[in-house]
Amino acid sequence: MVDIALWTAVFFTLGIYSILYRENPWYRIAESCYLGTAVGYAVGQDLKYIRDQWGGQWSSTSGMILLFAIVSLIGILWYARFNKEIFYLYRWPLAIVVGTGIGMALRTVIFSQFLDQIISQANTPFFVAGDMVTSINNILIQIMVPSVLLYFWFTGEIRESAPMKVVEKIARYTMMAGFGSAYGYTVLTRYSLFIGRAQFLLGIPPNAPEARTAFILIAFIMLATMIGYDLFMKKETPEEI
Amino acid sequence: MSLLERISNLDRRWIYLLAWVFVLFPLLNPLGLPIPISSDAEKWYAYVENEINDGDVVLFTPMYGVSGMPELFPMTVATMKHLLTKDVKIIVVSFWTEGPLVFNTLLTQVNPEDFGYVYGEDWIRLGYIPGSETAMGSLARGIQNTVAADYVEGRPLNSFPVMEGIETGEDIDIIVSFETGTPGTPEWMRQFNAPYGTPQITGCIGVSVSGMIPYVQSGQLQALMPGLTVSAEYEILLERPGLAVAGVDAVSTSHVYIVLLVILGNIAYFLTREER
User: What is the ipTM of this complex?
Assistant: First the structure.
């Protein structure tokens, strides 16, 4: 029996990858369906949460019901952005969400992303007995981190001094190394995503082996239609001499 | 047109086609390249094995959607299997919409009952909580106020034995997070680690690694699993080879391909620079 879900998954995977050839209707179909499904799923999950909250505690007393009504009303104001006349109302929920979010984050950001990092930097020993690699690594950290911080110090005459030129150079190399590392890991991620889909298309366990048949068939149809269309159009409109 | 100029002006579709070849070939014909175990995998394994004790409350959080599954799903499955070999309480929650969907897929490969885990007594699913970092903070202050009902049966959390005595972030012993972005580790740090000192281990996609390393060096993160290759090493340590091990040959060949392209591109650029 044909596994419709599996064939659909193969179709949409190849539809998305068909953009590598060029913009085409297969890609458009896959892209639109993916976005629609993702948004629909997100809305469904949100509504499930609200329903559970209502049943769990918000419907318990009249005070809670009133609060739930107010919160729901504020939530509905998000949709005011789709109407020019009442657009301004959309700023209220936005302000609440942004204000709450920033307030929640600022409460502890000073510890988790500022003080703890400075303490860690200060506690890094220059030399670790018997471990040459870690020692070199630590020395580099102690030189590179302050250099990069100083690189973004833009004011004062000291900025133009000779020692600062050396610091700037160290900082530039440090940042280049950082960007290189980030690029390398980005390539790893992109390929990992591709490899995961390739494992699915090839039916490598625990993926269903039937996917391989669907892969070959659907890939052939997509390529044939795209290349066939291109050849047809080329024939219809011969190149100017 | 010289060969170098042709290389410089090569249609990008040939590059994509070769990328498919470099990935598909080792998947169809495994090369069996050696997989050395890195310190990242060893640290992760040692932490789960030795530092998570019987009776600990583990907050297990798949913080990614289906687009992050190829890289993160193998490590999520492997870590879940590892945790299930221990006698811990597992609370599964996600602040990413598709988190529950990812965990549904995980359950098709790992059945907690096979490890003697009973739903509601040893583990529970809280599902997806909307609200990003604000919701995380709310969960830390009061789990049962933030989540009215469990994800599977829709019953109040206090009706499940597993939730007995688990009220706030203070009652969580360890966070095990797998993530592709925001909300993720920085938000966990701000809402759980800083106020409650909750330890955490994080599995992340390669793109995020550079941003995670400072948390490891400062000791805020106890272990980090960066990407698919370390995931494969962890599967080997667990003696449960899975999808990550199956894909690691393709990772190697695809990176060789990228390095070759970089070298070729640079040679072509420098040799034709004067002509430009």
Answer: 0.88
